[in-house]
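subagent[fold] <- orchestrator: predict structure for attached chain, return tokens only, no commentary.
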Amino acid sequence: MTSGIGRRRAAARDEGGAAYQERRVEILKAAGEVFKRNGFRGTKIGDIAEAMGLDRATIYYYVGSKEELFHQAVGDAVERNCLRAEELLAGPGNAEEKLRTLITELMVSYADNYPYLYLYIQEDLGALASRSQWSRTMARFNKRYENVVVAIVEDGVADGSFRTETQPWVVAYGIIGMVAWSNRWFHPETSSVPAREIGAAYAATVLGGLRRGGTAGEVPS
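subagent[fold] -> orchestrator:
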């Protein structure tokens, strides 16, 4: 059974159009900063309302819970990253070109979706709610993304452009972990180096190690 405020929220969503969605985006951004400061578990809807100078009832007019906020922000980003990676794998270009683009775009995604993807990593909310439908969906998208990175490395090894002393999946997981580690220090609004430059530097370092007989390439401008 849908509550009265739930019905009003649905009506406002349908009727409010762009203005309603813009307000939700503002709430998502403010909530992210509160989550970052207090941790997901330590945050209440009232904390988000206070950060925005609103009352709780107003927040509930736009969102049903902190879980809804978090699930939307993380879920949308994880799905986009997965579909983009699969598009890269299936598209034109060699393994080096694909891996360079994938690494760079992953770092940019962490910045564009700050701090939600970092919070997901830090708090391991997928494991916390491992039996929920949402967490199972996230796990499937994450696995598909990992499979793409493995496949690109395998393609580079197969065509002779990459060399590795271990299994391609070990290299692939290392790449994902390297970019994810930026959660410990990167903030898009305070970093002196933009996310795209960081991602390009990571890609050049990785490719320099994988390239047969090569050295780390220059970071593209």
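orchestrator: received. Logging for downstream: The mean pLDDT is 87. The CA atoms of residues 152 and 158 lie 10 Å apart.
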